[in-house]
Amino acid sequence: MIKFAKFFSEARFKSPAKNFEEVSQPIEVRVDPLTGNKCRMNIERTKRPKQVSENNAELDNLINASREKCYFCPERIETSTPKFPEGMPERVKVGKATIFPNLFPFGGFHAVGVFSDKHYLRLNEFTPDLLRDTFNACIKTFELASRIDADLRFWHINWNCLPPGAASIIHPHVQIFADPVPTPFLKDMMDKSQEYHSEEHLNYWADLVDAEKRSGERYIHGSRGIHWLASFAPQGNKEVMAVVEDISNLSGLKEKMEKFCEGLSAILKGYHEMGVRSMTFSTFAGPSDVFMNDFYWLNARLISRPNPSPFYISDCGFMEKMHLEPVIETLPEDLAAGLKKHF
Ligand SMILES: [Zn+2]
What we know:
Layout: E1 5-15, E2 21-31, E3 38-42, H1 43-47, H2 56-67, H3 77-80, E4 92-94, E5 97-101, E6 109-114, H4 128-148, E7 154-161, E8 173-179, H5 184-200, H6 204-215, E9 219-223, E10 226-230, E11 240-244, H7 250-253, H8 257-273, E12 278-284, E13 299-305, H9 318-321, H10 332-340
Antiparallel strand pairs: 1-2, 2-3, 4-5, 5-6, 6-8, 7-8, 7-12, 9-10, 10-11, 11-13, 12-13
The structure holds zinc ion.
């Protein structure tokens, strides 16, 4: 039932690298089987192995310069970060994780979750325990907030890692959001999953997992109902998707949290080994008070972002920001092959 649609075209030009002989480069356009969102790749470029530019000096400078005045470090977190208003605990703590309101929110409920007292962690240092405590703290905070305001039904956990991933603070933290309405992308996914269910009498997410498992090209790993795969038509570079079987909202994730965090930790290790230092992560959950797992399953996605570097160039240009048709640098099939060995 699932269609993995690809279109091909070619770009022809006289190349200065070949004495102005006419050359051709193949272009592939892929269409997401659920949303219809497109992405494009220049297959030759995509296959080209990339030099991992470590630029550690730049990253080290960034880490050291930011540590002295960091609001999330243990010396300042208690005095410099906001507290939740009446009706909530002032801050929510689980293990080493601390959740508090965002000082500059862009929503009625917008909070920050600091992973631990460590000012900087490499992507391969986010252990399953650290992830579990933080995500459990996020869900606990959502549950408390929804008890006060029942309209806050759409919960999402987001993680911008390092400035190229849009983090303004180096110290590892997530941002959590609860809102009465879903974001447009989540709404589109829920609506189209429901359409698929009413037309095919099947669950899109179960079909997706089955199809990806069968082909094996993009399926990375699956265990106890958590499936990791490289997205067929990624919206960002090195996009990896987690699909959580039979669960539609974030409260349901609690029972599968260990496995989810083991998987995420392995993917982050894989990213690190591939030379990725910066990334962006989000969860896409159905409403907190409804079980709609017959047609929609909780999913999460992460994408790599450029590495901190003195000649930093954003990975979001006119195609990504204006036309919403991203240009992708890595073939999903190669990404899956590279990440499998971390499980
Ligand atoms: Zn810090």
